[in-house]
Amino acid sequence: MPHASLISVHSQDDRLTVAGRGAWTSEYADELEQAVNDTAHSYAKPKDVEIDLASVERMDTFGALLLERLRRSWVGAGIEPKVVGLAPRYRVLLDELARMGHEPVPPKRRHEGILERFGHEVVNAAKDALSLLNFIGATVAAMLRVLARPRSFRFTSMVNQVDRVGFRAVPIILLITFLIGCILAQQGIFNFRRFGADIYVVDMVGVLVLRELGVLIVSIMIAGRSGSAYTAELGSMRMREEIDALRVMGFDPIEVLVVPRILALVIALPLLTFIGSMSAIFGAGLVSWGYGGITPDVFLDRLKLAIDLDQFKVGMYKAPFMAATIGLVACMEGLRVGGSAESLGEHTTASVVKAIFLVIVMDGVFAMFFAAIDM
């Protein structure tokens, strides 16, 4: 039964009179909503309904919405209630709700099917690829403009970026690649020892580090360290409208901000790859000496037989292309940041994930290319 404090109901000969009183406001939301629901359920199919609101002292939008819900509960059953006694100042609320035609219903969340979601991801990937292609074109055009006007190049900015992404990254690159070399040597000796072929760990480490792992590990480290920094820097500048300010002053943001950063990565990554490869080989040599009994003289002699200059060239040839890929993806995602901190976080994460993915894909493509030319 309805709550008597706000609604009272009188029924006679299938004629229903609903009297409201008190304050129909959000202040009494729970009690009022319960009263309306009880009334609608208790008297679902009367023949005639009159809603008397003469005793309602106050009404706000919430109260009017509940009144309209009560009225429509009977309209749906084919009964048109008569509303009487409502103060004129509240009539506009009911008129507006009636004009809407239906109660606003929150949209239902629709769950995508597997194929539908897969299709959306494919479309998004295609859009990202197209955006990256456009950004590559814009960057190349900016570089050509710099070549045509060398004095416009921000050399100081590039040197600063080389210091940040190159020299300051040396300690962490040395540590990580040293550990990778140690692990490779330890695992190689542990497994080759079963066949009495401990010495072949030198061949494995030399080829893997110089051709593949050296440049790959360094590129992944730089994508996570410097690529995310690029995205965060450019994204913050976009949020503070500094990039728009550059355009207003007549500067091209790609020429001012992107070109020096990409060139810095192209210079720094090959140097870090060389340093990282040497560190990994040094770590492998130490473990081979301490764990496998392979002395440094034997290790170096075997390394000279196992590798040649082509092995070193393969890794170094990959480095500039991977550097350019990391820089392009990081800067593109930074310039796509919206005006919220959430957008900055999303694009920074996307920058690292996409850069690492493309680096690994490029490494596979280069591996097939160099195998095809017997290098």
How would you describe what is shown here?
- With 375 residues, the protein is α/β, with parallel strands linked by helices.
- Helix content is 71%, strand content 8%.
- It has twelve helices and four strands, in the order ββαβαβαααααααααα.
- The chain has helices at 29-42, 61-75, 88-100, 114-148, 155-165, 170-192, 200-239, 242-248, 253-292, 296-306, 309-335, 341-372; strands spanning 7-12, 15-24, 48-59, 82-84.
- A four-stranded mixed β-sheet has the order 1-2-3-4, with helices on one face.
- Strand 3, helix 2 (61-75) and strand 4 (82-84) form a beta-alpha-beta unit.
- Helix 4 (114-148) packs across helix 9 (253-292).
- The radius of gyration is 36 Å and the shape is elongated.
Considering DSSP H and I runs of 4 or more, what fraction of the residues is helical? over 70%
Strand content: 5-15%
User: Which spans have pLDDT < 50 for at least 5 consecutive residues?
Assistant: 103-107
N-end to C-end Cα span: 88 Å
Mean pLDDT: 86
The DSSP helix count reads 12
Order of helices and strands: EEHEHEHHHHHHHHHH
- Helix/strand class: alpha/beta
Largest beta-sheet details:
4 strands, mixed
* Spatial order of strands in the largest sheet: 1-2-3-4
Shape: elongated
**CA-based gyration radius:** 36 Å
The total count of strands amounts to 4
List the helices and strands and how they pair.
Elements: E1 7-12, E2 15-24, H1 29-42, E3 48-59, H2 61-75, E4 82-84, H3 88-100, H4 114-148, H5 155-165, H6 170-192, H7 200-239, H8 242-248, H9 253-292, H10 296-306, H11 309-335, H12 341-372
Parallel strand pairs: 2-3, 3-4
Antiparallel strand pairs: 1-2
Helix pairs in contact: 1-2, 2-3, 4-9, 5-9, 6-7, 6-9, 7-9, 7-10, 7-11, 7-12, 9-11, 11-12
